[in-house]
Amino acid sequence: MTPRWPERLWIVRHGESAGNVARDFAYQQGLPRIDLTGRDVDVPLSPLGEQQARALGHWFSQGKEEGRPNVVLASPYLRAMETARLFREAGGCPEGTRIHLDERLREKEFGILDGLTGLGIRAEHPQQAELRASLGKFYHRPPGGESWCDVIFRLRALMDTVGLHHGGCRVMIVAHQVVVLCLRYVIEGLTEQEILAIDREGDVANCSITEYRWEAGEEGTDGGMALVRYNVTAPMEAEHTPVTREPDPIVGHRG
């Protein structure tokens, strides 16, 4: 009988992107808008992000994870695709492993708030700033954008697909910060309060590892995916590669 869930599941945030760098600069300078143009989907990795992705691949190639993934899923955003490709080139998974792109792993959509810093949101859309403060990030949906709940809806469908097609496999997912957090919510059955508390503890580091393993239940009970570790940056530290934790920016025009 085909197993219901992957044997192992690694969830990885993409390497540092040019958008992360631009966002950090905008906040340091107190600017209302992040200095990037074009579509968010096309924002590439920074040179440091490329180095982080290779360090992750080297870590897996050296057997530090007790096995390499034989299934790789990635967001279709360029920074996630580049992370998965460089990971594969560095030996993180077998050379011929296909990188499956899945739009359900894309970054959270920010709608009319796209490209704005917190200062810019308060200046240009004060009503949305008030709504977000009232509803919280879990339920607030900016016009044309998504709430965390909307992201969770698509990730529930994604996990059904993973269970259906990749049961018993060693699966890696390469995506974005909010996706990593929302997958924790889905897999672990967390509450709004629990996932937001995890979010407040600190940002998900670029190319960090969140790992789950399948654990069989006692006779007559279902098993499930058990969290082994969260937000681990050992691959970068092993190669003395700087660790970055900037949140994904809201940049450019989407389409």
Instruction: Give helix and strand order, one letter per element, not per position.
Output: EHHEHEHHHEHHEEH
Structural class: alpha/beta
- C-alpha end-to-end distance: 42 Å
Radius of gyration, CA atoms, in whole angstroms: 18 Å
How many DSSP-defined strands? 6
Portion of residues within helices = 25-40%
Strand share of the residues?
Answer: 5-15%
Please state the overall shape, judged from the principal axes of the Cα atoms.
Answer: globular
What does the main sheet amount to?
6 strands, mixed
Q: Give the number of helices.
A: 9
Q: Average pLDDT, to the nearest integer? A: 89
Strand order across the largest sheet: 3-2-4-1-5-6
List low-confidence stretches.
Answer: 249-255
Family: Belongs to the phosphoglycerate mutase family. BPG-dependent PGAM subfamily.
Organism: Paracoccus niistensis
Pfam family, one: His_Phos_1
EC number: 5.4.2.11
Explain how this protein is built.
40% of the residues lie in helices and 14% in strands. It has nine helices and six strands. It has helices at residues 18-29, 47-61, 78-89, 118-124, 126-135, 148-165, 177-188, 192-201, 234-238, and strands spanning 8-13, 71-74, 99-101, 170-175, 209-215, 224-232. Strand 5 and strand 6 (224-232) form a beta hairpin. The longest helix has 18 residues, at 148-165. Its EC number is 5.4.2.11. Belongs to the phosphoglycerate mutase family. BPG-dependent PGAM subfamily. This is phosphoglycerate mutase (2,3-diphosphoglycerate-dependent). InterPro entries: His_Pase_superF_clade-1, His_PPase_superfam, PG/BPGM_mutase_AS, Phosphogly_mut1.
